[in-house]
Amino acid sequence: MEDSTKKPEQPLDEVQMAQDLNDEISDSPSPTAERDVEAEIQELKDQNLRLYAEFENFRRRNARERLELMATAGEKVIKAVLPILDDFDRAMKALAEGPERQGLALIQNKLLSAMKAEGLKAMESTVGQAFDVERMEAITNIPAPSPELSGCVVDELETGYLLGEKIIRYAKVVVGQAAE
């Protein structure tokens, strides 16, 4: 049996209902607060994207620098050997044909082969070519033997060398100058 002494539930009065509704509305974010949160989320996404792009650029640059370093690791040693190659060239020009010259040529060829294996290659002869500041170093100017050699290389004093694609020594040349 039901207890008849219980009072029936009474509806909340209007004031209480209004107060509950206000509490519920104040708990939900306002439209401006939602926009602020969305803007902050978008800003954080942009920041994350920029950081990712910066890291990718850093990684690529680091890999490229590592490859360049490996390619030119022996550059210091090779530069130290270049004067020896020049001395071999001078000795070969000074010696007449004979057994000494053949022995010297053998040693020179072995040294050149070892340097080529490390990526060293001599530049082409520059004699007769127009002077190129990017590949040559002018030691002096002399009057050109003919007008068409004005501004061209008349003599090459030292051969230029490349290590891979990088110039490690410019060709030292004498440039012909037009007679005044």
State the main characteristics.
about 15% strand, alpha+beta, Nucleotide Exchange Factor Grpe, Chain A, domain 2, about 180 residues, 3-stranded mixed beta sheet
Written description of the protein model:
- The chain has 180 residues and is α+β, with helices and mostly antiparallel strands.
- It folds into two domains: 16-71; 75-177, Nucleotide Exchange Factor Grpe, Chain A, domain 2 (Roll), CATH 2.30.22.10.
- Helix content is 52%, strand content 17%.
- The chain is built from four helices and six strands, in the order H-H-H-H-E-E-E-E-E-E.
- It has helices at residues 14-27, 31-71, 75-94, 99-117, and strands at 120-122, 136-143, 153-158, 161-163, 166-169, 171-177.
- Strands 1-4-5 form a three-stranded antiparallel β-sheet.
- A hairpin with a 2-residue loop joins strand 4 (161-163) and strand 5.
- The longest helix has 41 residues, at 31-71.
- It starts with 13 loop residues before the first helix and ends with a strand.
- The relative contact order is 0.09.
- The model has no long low-confidence stretch (mean pLDDT 84).
SSE order and pairing:
Blueprint: H1 14-27, H2 31-71, H3 75-94, H4 99-117, E1 120-122, E2 136-143, E3 153-158, E4 161-163, E5 166-169, E6 171-177
Parallel strand pairs: 2-6
Antiparallel strand pairs: 1-4, 3-6, 4-5
Q: Quick check: average pLDDT?
A: 84
Q: Give the class from helix and strand content and strand pairing.
A: alpha+beta
CATH architecture identity of the largest domain = Roll
Distance between the termini: 135 Å
So how many helices? 4
Number of domains: 2
Gyration radius over CA: 41 Å
Query: In one word, what is the shape?
Result: elongated
Largest sheet: 3 strands, antiparallel
Output the CATH topology of the largest domain: Nucleotide Exchange Factor Grpe, Chain A, domain 2
Amount of helix: 40-55%
CATH superfamily of the largest domain: Head domain of nucleotide exchange factor GrpE
* Low-pLDDT residue spans: none
Overall strand count: 6
